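Hey, quick one: can you model this chain's 3D structure?
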Amino acid sequence: MSPTTRPVNAGETSVPAGSRPTADYADLARQLEATGDFKVLRRFEPAPCYAPLEGVDPQQLRVAMVVDTETTGLSKDDDRIIDLGYVLAEFHPRTGLVHRVLERYSGFEDPGRPIPANITELTGIRDADVAGQVFDAVRVEAAIARAHLVIAHNAPFDRGFLEARFPSFMNKWWACSQREAPWQAMMTGSTKLEWLAYRLGSVFYGAHRALVDAEVLLYLLTRSGPEARTILSHILERSGRRTYCVWAEHAPFEMKDRLKMDKGYSWSDGTSPQKPIKAWYKAGVEDLAGELAMLGRDIYPRAAQVTVDTVTGRERYTDRYLSREKMPVGPAA
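Sure thing. Here's the predicted structure for all 333 residues.
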């Protein structure tokens, strides 16, 4: 074998790198797809702008912070962020269009302990990459201050870690693209970011690094969903609603299986500071009137009161709530 050649692996081309113009590859891709027998994936490339600004009143635009983290583990109390990436972008709250990208940030931070082997295997981040590194806190805090909305693909995970590292995230309105986008209606089959990039954009990328994950998420927010509206438009609608956590206090004991199996309630023993009420509870309720009517009809044989927490995007995906109050259920409600 010549020293200037090497074996060609499955899926590779034998044409030497750089010997064929990019335009030729694009033409080849079109030819393959035109047969109907191939689907060609393209490497993801972030854009500086996703929708033109012509005719748009700049005063109506808002700023979204699309953020992702890589961490040493799953516990926001015991683990640390090692990779932080975000994109700031202008969006129109009425149309759901994303316009200019304003800022990108990528940074490492030393967790002060060895990175677990499984995390390095997943992300490629080694101890040497983060040694002595610290996030640019001034820059990150300035970006948080500019943002009207923070979007993460797994907000319950990222929000906990980010609030622990940068408490000013606690004051922001959050949305979760995994839970608030219309993936089910679109029958995507999965909500994993890599799959969605393939399914909706026919693109691939090196996943599990914070900035590129944030860039890909922003791109997905610009894609069209039901009713020819952007994915972001649907998320804005869902995120803008109030949701409720209903605590079915003093529910009859014989109703416990029905609450759990049929009604989607979970049990709290009241010992957790985050869930101090001993009762069956259900979070994420959108139709409060319907939920209270169901409890009165199917669970409580006589008039009773339940506790209801009201939650907005400022509290969602945390254990906090906007308000907590008693509400009547049952025949006399």
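One thing worth noting: Confidence is low (pLDDT under 50) at residues 1-17.
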